[in-house]
């Protein structure tokens, strides 16, 4: 297998304010969000990060997107280090999270072209990719409507196509179907499968078991910032369901830590 | 300039100029409002003056020489040359009797024996007037300039000693009334305009920078930019340059409003000026000073906006700076002038000093270069700091 992403011993801690300390009933000023996390992802593979809220999935993806710097460890994306070559990494990935917003004043067409130029895509390629992606997600009818006037689903789809304007080899999606209706969610998951068939590597975080079973070649289960299991969903769950397997792991971990 | 800086500038321009309401409130409205307010005030004052025509000043003249009679009688003054008691007239002036002045020529005042008199102490003409009375003060101005013009026409034969029986002093070196008015206006412009310009520029910067930096942070759109290969330094420069253009336009609009209304406002005080009498080199120097000042101010407000978590917070952080800017802008009014080159190294104050120099037509290329260079160096430092802030996850993702 052609390895495209190697995550090595990533660790990330956050400093807490006194108010946060009181809320979380913690004595320490620091909280470990990601603890010694390692995994790899291959070309043409969908790798899922599965875990409860606050497990460290989003922090991990943000480190891969170079928005956050790891305290220690590194991740190599197509040979480029997120620590030492953040701009090269950003040029190679498409990152989508609900926290990244689009300026509501602009239209999908303007923003697609703008981000295409920032990624250094040739104008002709921007135009052809825009036509293709807009048509596929039904954005073409709203291409000149301001983002502010689009529905939530259409905004999400616009964010998705803009994150892929430069045709990246690695696509990092944080909870890609959150807040979408079933039709839109389906079109997004189908598209992820299509990207995989094109040889792209997709890293996605989710807490939806059915999504993992349907999409992911491999899955890493994160609890309290640590990778507690990693492998193919079928192998991991054995004869039980992925959901039951996860709850067994969760109970073991939380029981062991408390 | 890198293509990404141009991309950011293009996007900021599309955002700013595409929003008609923003263009109106940030650019058109300040100038329009200032023009309307100042014009309204100026016309109101002029109208009040037209409704109350002033009677001519009563000027008592002691020992008036015969050769000066035709000249002094031609002035719009009511001259009395005999039949008065000098002490009584001085009492009238001291008691602030409106529209009264006294001119005391020395006995045997001769204006035609120039060589002899020039060698000795020139004779003294005393003018006593009441500066709290507009009519009396104007009669003093008129007499001073008329006599000075006469003096210059015949040789330096005599001296004039003004006796304002209050606080006004006699200005010197003006050969005719037109020059005096021009000097007054120049002095007024050099003291007041730097503060007005600085305030307008700061207001322009405040109108655009917090919305663009703190606003993008608040709305989560800056994070979308930060996941592209865009260098943070390019983002900082793209923001600073584009926002400076908008702030400059806002400042220019405000200045245009003031400049267009200023002649009407000042003419209401009896002075008629034209603000278009500065050479192109001075206007170019002014433009460079203003541009470098805007860049520096935008850099500063951008940094504060980046540290804030919302537009509201950014505006509240920046507001106190307005008082600092106002205080610095008022420095020339309180007599702070650029006597030392070291003062041109002080940011913001150097801009005020340069503008004062330009408006008083005492421009110094050396100090001008120092001030502009300092401003640009500070802008570069601000861009560097803004880049660091854009790189800081704690700053960019704190809510």
Describe this structure in words.
- The complex is a heterodimer of chains A (258) and B (399).
- Chain A has 258 residues and is α/β, with parallel strands linked by helices.
- Chain A has one domain (42-68, 80-257): P-loop containing nucleotide triphosphate hydrolases (Rossmann fold), CATH 3.40.50.
- Chain A is built from 10 helices and 10 strands.
- Chain A has helices spanning 18-24, 57-64, 86-92, 108-118, 123-137, 152-163, 182-197, 209-215, 233-237, 242-257; strands at 3-15, 30-42, 46-50, 72-77, 80-81, 93-96, 170-174, 201-206, 218-223, 226-231.
- In chain A, strands 6-7-8-3-9-10 form a 6-stranded mixed beta sheet, sandwiched between helices. A 4-stranded antiparallel beta sheet of chain A has the order 2-1-4-5, covered by helices on one side.
- In chain A, a hairpin with a 2-residue loop joins strand 9 (218-223) and strand 10 (226-231).
- The longest helix of chain A has 16 residues, at 182-197.
- Chain A is globular, with a radius of gyration of 19 Å.
- The N and C termini of chain A lie far apart (39 Å).
- Chain B has a 5-stranded mixed beta sheet with strand order 2-1-3-4-5, with helices on both faces.
- The longest helix of chain B is centred in the middle third of the chain and has 43 residues, at 177-219.
- Chain B is an alpha/beta fold and 399 residues long.
- The radius of gyration of chain B is 28 Å and the shape is elongated.
- Chain B folds into 2 domains: 3-45 and 184-393, no CATH class; 58-175, abc type-2 transporter like fold (3-Layer(aba) Sandwich).
- In chain B, helix 7 runs parallel beside helix 10, helix 9 (232-267) crosses helix 10 (280-307) and helix 10 packs antiparallel against helix 12.
- Chain B has 14 helices and 5 strands.
- Classes of the chains: A alpha/beta (258), B alpha/beta (399).
- The A-B interface holds A 65-69, 87-88, 90-91, 93, 95, 99-106, 110, 114-115, 117-120 and B 3-4, 7, 10-11, 14-15, 18-19, 216, 219-221, 223-231, 393, 396-397.
